[in-house]
Hints:
single chain, two-stranded antiparallel sheet, 51% helix, elongated, chromosome partition, HTH_ParB/Spo0J, DNA-binding, ParB/RepB/Spo0J family partition protein
Amino acid sequence: MSDAGARRARGGLGRGLNALLGDxxxxxxxxxxxxxxxxxxxxxxxxxxxxxxxxxxxxxxxxLDELAASIAERGVIQPIIVRPHGHDYQIVAGERRWxxxxxxxxxxxxxxxxxxxxxxxxxxxxxxxIQRQDLNAIEEARAYQxxxxxxxxxxxxxxxxxxxxxxxxxxLLRLLDLPDEVQSRVVSGTLTMGHARAMVSxxxxxxxxxxxxxQGLSVRQTEKxxxxxKRGGNAAPRETTGGxxxxxxxxxxxxxxxxxxxxxxxxxxxxxxxxxNEDGRGSITLDYSSLEQLDMVCQRLSGERI
Length: 306
């Protein structure tokens, strides 16, 4: 194994996406050593195949068309990361760009060829999609579960690698306990992660999912219905004027505040604390465990794409 290969073999999931993908500019400087494995170069679109274990299964058709239009005008700006696969290549990161390039009728695309193991390939695909917020909750949960089952990663290690809280990873994994019908609705976007998490504790998640979709219930209403099921109650969600979701006042108690904390935690992947005064004022506290996690939060709050 070469020195570069040995460096890649060391380390692990905690290295993060940038370390796993490496620095393309550095590769270009080292291209004299191994031009076929380092430099950015053009290869035929037909010589590239997607990875069968790519965590992302759902590709938004409208978004793909928009990207294809941009690529047709400007080309593929960011190289696709591939690895050798037989006589051709397999995508490690960048399947969406590859699909859009085909729609734009490009014959060649820029790539960086890297030697990656199956474990590293799955980790990179997971990290890239999560950091770009491209996976839905079920896809993300399934990817986490595979990393745990096949590669022995702990929830703590996964949380550090994706710069999210351990509770976020744990909550996602719980979604895999839901019936397939409910999981499918999360994948399609009919149900949010917050809705699905509330249904995990319900006696009949499928019936509750039908009710949520039919009545357009909020996450907090769903949580109350799930809790009512556990108590054997028959509470119905309160209607809101004009169908709009209405935030409960502070006097509604800690249950509504806890629900809001959970919704924000699902969105950011961090622990969230909400404190409020009787006059309606308050504060929101986000707990982060590293500077990388802080940077991730800042980028998400500012809308910056990674």
